[in-house]
Amino acid sequence: MTDTPSPPPLEVHDLTVAYHQKPVLYGVDVAVPPGSLVGIIGPNGAGKSTFIKAVMGLLPLSSGWVKLFGEPLSRGGHRVGYVPQRESVDWDFPVSVMDVVLMGRYGRLRLGQRPTRADREIARDCLDKVRMLPFANRQIGNLSGGQQQRVFLARALAQESDLYLMDEPFVGVDAATEAAIIALLRELKERGRTLLVVHHDLTSARDYFDHLMLLNMRLVAFGPTAEVFTPRLLQTTYGGRLSILTDVAQTLGSQP
Amino acid sequence: MNALSLHRPHRLLPLLLLVLCCVFPSLAEAARISELTDTGMLTRAVRFFTFQDPSLRYALAGSMLLGVCCGLMGAFLVVRKLALMGDALSHAVLPGVALGYLWNLTKDPLAIFIGATLAGLLGAATVQLIRSTTRHREDAALGFVLASFFGVGICLFTMIQNLPGGNKSGLDQMMFGQAAALGRGDVILLACVTFLAVIAVLLFYKEYLLTSFDPGFARSIRLPVPFFHYSLMLLLAFAIVASLQAVGVVLVSAMLVIPASAAYLLTDRFARMLLLSALFGLCTGAIGAFFSFVGRSLPTGPFMVLAAAVVFALALFFGPRYGILPRWWRQRSRSARIQRENTLKAIYHVLEKDDFRREAVTFKELAAHRRETLEEARQQIARVADVELVTVQGDVIAFTPDGWQRACEIVRNHRLWELYLTHAARIAPDHVHEDAEMIEHVLGEDTVRKLERRLNYARRDPHGKLIPGLEDIRQGPLGPAIPPGGPTVPPTA
Hints:
The complex is a heterodimer of chains A (256) and B (493). Chain A is an alpha/beta fold and 256 residues long. Helices cover 36% and strands 23% of the residues of chain A. The longest helix of chain A has 16 residues, at 175-190. Chain B has 493 residues and is an all-alpha fold. Chain B has a 3-stranded antiparallel sheet. Chains A and B meet through helix 3 of A and helix 10, helix 11 and helix 14 of B.
């Protein structure tokens, strides 16, 4: 799959990011094959969100480069859908669910151009896909955490991108919503989209993703889940966090 | 709510243009208000409303324009949680005002405008500098800039007062505002700034909305976020500086924050909030100008701010959705309804104890059942009888058809919920009653249908009691509708 002639949706070389001169991510090299559903996992403070933000061009790079579909960051940006962390916005902001989903269309509109009827239709469809259409006119603060997450997801869907970057879309989401979201992500993958998802739960990571990216300030491993989800690599990723490791070791051991 | 349909702000355009049209004719040639002869308060009020004084037109037009542009900018400050920024900026411009005056020792609106804008931008830059180079957060930086720039400004003002002719400079009016002193130049400046703000907001509504709500996402779709942020801050500085003459340095921030905060209490849509905020600004500006004119040479700023505060207080207390009184009222009527429903349920229980062989209960039975005094029972029943859910004849209480239906529904909700908790959630039967006591009052018909389906239309609750169904409700009521004396059909039939 990596041998396809078309450039990979996301290629990162020697990506280094620092906050106040303190490096958070060191020399990450990754080329994500098209049509893959990638889980980004690692302990707290491993730089998972930093990686997503750096790829989106939201953080200055200390060194290295990012290519989206073979183009530098500044030009490939419009082909990328983004789901930020839920806490990144003020949910008391006076906007409706529909307003937020429509924002997904803004990237395709010119400056000063208003969303068209077609944009509204697309936003509607996307809301319907995450089963939030009945809430279209609600103020976004009057939603549960899972519903808010689905609104963000619908906004990303409305971007109709080929590559999606999602920062912890499962935080504060109940099990049923999580299952619905993962089904939606798989459907996108089936249609050839590439998705990178920051995920914090190791046990479900193996079931959800076909590729895994193990991060802990540097890239520990990237590859198909079957090859990367090994006790040795997880040990390296999670360092001394034995409690998590024993949990996972148990699940690994209980596999036939 | 959708009838207004102000989702798309271009619909606001006609309204805003109308406002501007009302304001512009008043730019006719005029004398200063100070040249007017003294007259009584009433006469002055009459003159205010007949717009005889051209000078008054300046004052009014200026105050209204200032209300609109401060209202628009203030809405952005409030949703971006930058309310203090307006305060700091408005104080930071003071040294610029003084330097603008010192430039050629006249109160030239343009020189003062430029000086004040530069001082405001310097203040904003200082805040940014403190934030990015120290570990102070924005609040400390804003506090520092506000106080120190204001201090410098006061020093310069005192210096000017001591210059020859300085005490006639009119600069003292800059502190608390004097709409009556607005000249043609001031009003034109205000009109330009307001026009600029309105056009920017109409043209780039979508971009300003997104960069205010989710700057990270805005950057991810390659919107020039800093451009929109700084253009907004520049417009803000313009609005503040242009408003100084009318409302004063000290209180201009109130005109930014208060109308916008009142609007925020009244709506959940940003476009509507912008419109309301501009409208409130316009009205309070006019009211401030009125009082300043009627009371002669009274400072305008305080009156404007008082008017704005009244609007805010009205929104706070009477706003339909978030107002304190409507919320209190809703809460009260909800608890009154719950009380009524509990009374109905109690009557049902008493009847049920007797297997529905009777159609009416006495106060005594009801009081005994609820472990209340007779007096309490009478009060409760009176409340239910008021809304015609029961009828009282002498000592006997009977359901009306509506009352019977509601009682059945409540009992059904209660028992269905208990059953659901014990079956689906596997909670012990003796733990579910309390929860059902609350849930019974809020279950909607849709949820009830779902529960019934989920529970296979079960007829008995966990305690073995009958769950009244649609059939029972239809067969009811056991009250006066059935001929007295005849045996009543038990709802189980």
